[in-house]
Specification:
- The protein is 47% helix and 15% strand.
- It is built from nine helices and nine strands.
- The protein has helices spanning 24-35, 47-57, 69-83, 98-110, 122-147, 171-191, 209-212, 216-225, 233-244, and strands at residues 15-19, 39-44, 60-63, 88-91, 153-158, 196-203, 206-207, 231-232, 255-258.
- Helix 3 (69-83) runs parallel beside helix 5.
- It is globular.
- The structure holds nicotinamide-adenine-dinucleotide.
- The site of nicotinamide-adenine-dinucleotide has 30 residues, from helix 1, helix 5 and helix 7.
């Protein structure tokens, strides 16, 4: 059984696993789940970040690359093995493409057209698709398998408003996140038969290290188009924790768009 202390609050007595918990939105979710009583496991490909975030709230850290299905299965097995159950899973691990962002920045500075699709390599395409989409598949499969015998559980995945308000120069990212929405909604329809709720949050621009890599021209256009500007990681953690909480007991297969208003930038 777990030796992580659980507290009082909405998640008292719950065991939670947060992928991508070493940074940004995931780290904010870790802090909120811990503050609201959960025993939290933090998983990230950057082991030092996972360890630092975990240490700050008395959680347990795991190094895992979500593109590695065997490693994902092993982490889920380790959590269930030590805690006896897995109540909440928040899958935030994901990437953008710094090279594509550099090309967008270049175009912004030169006043020329954006050319990402013409220069996108197979490797860059596969990296984004494998981390964002394959990773979500691996996490959903492993955690639904683990929760099914319990007959309960809540899973929240993270998509992006980029798949609705498609940004210029993000073809692989937008495609991966549109697929995350469809994958999560399809799994939600199956998993609810086992008492498991799957939902998704689709953030607009959020102030995290990922957003720090956004070209200034794109950031300025986003700021101008959005009613509320950039969100904080904590605002997204609020949305995610709501979907994971008993307050969302009747919410299944939702894609909650949290983008502060209209962010269409073309
Ligand atoms: P971030 O870069 O701060 O955090 C992402 C975390 O995922 C990092 O800790 C990173 O190490 C981890 N990660 C990356 N690849 C991994 C892998 N293969 N296995 C395990 N962990 C891995 O970014 P963030 O802004 O907090 O992003 C969190 C999620 O929100 C992502 O899925 C991102 O696509 C999505 N999102 C972010 C924004 C934004 O503006 N920041 C907008 C829409 C959607």
């Amino acid at each position: 059984m777990t030796d992580i202390p659980t507290g009082t609050g909405r998640f008292a007595g719950c065991t939670a696993l947060v992928t991508g918990g070493g940074s940004g939105i995931g780290a904010a979710v870790v802090r909120q789940l811990a503050a609201e009583g959960a025993a939290v496991h933090v998983a990230d490909v950057v082991a030092d970040n996972a360890a630092a975030v975990a240490a700050s709230v008395g959680a347990v850290a795991h190094a895992v690359d979500v593109t590695d299905a065997v490693a994902v299965d092993a982490v889920v097995a380790a959590v269930v093995g030590s805690a006896g159950s897995l109540d909440v899973v928040v899958h935030t691990a994901g990437v953008d493409d710094p090279q594509a962002k550099a090309w967008i920045r270049e175009a912004g500075e030169s006043g020329g057209p954006v050319d990402v699709i013409g220069r996108l390599t197979d490797e860059a395409w596969r990296r984004v698709i494998s981390i964002n989409l394959d990773g979500t598949f691996h996490v959903l499969r492993a955690t639904v398998r683990a929760m099914r015998p319990q007959g309960r559980g809540a899973i929240v995945t993270v998509g992006s408003s980029a798949s609705f308000d498609t940004l210029v120069g993000y073809p692989h990212y937008a495609a991966s996140k549109a697929a995350v929405h469809a994958l999560s909604q399809s799994v939600a329809k199956e998993a609810v038969g086992f008492g498991i709720r799957v939902n998704t949050v689709a953030p607009g621009p959020v102030d995290t290290p990922m957003a720090g890599r956004t070209p200034p021209s794109v950031r300025a256009a986003m700021e101008a188009a959005g009613a509320l500007g950039y969100a904080s990681a904590e605002e997204l953690a609020d949305n995610i924790c709501y979907l994971a909480s008993p307050q969302a007991s009747n919410v299944v297969g939702a894609v909650l768009l949290s983008n502060g208003g209209r962010f269409t930038v073309s």
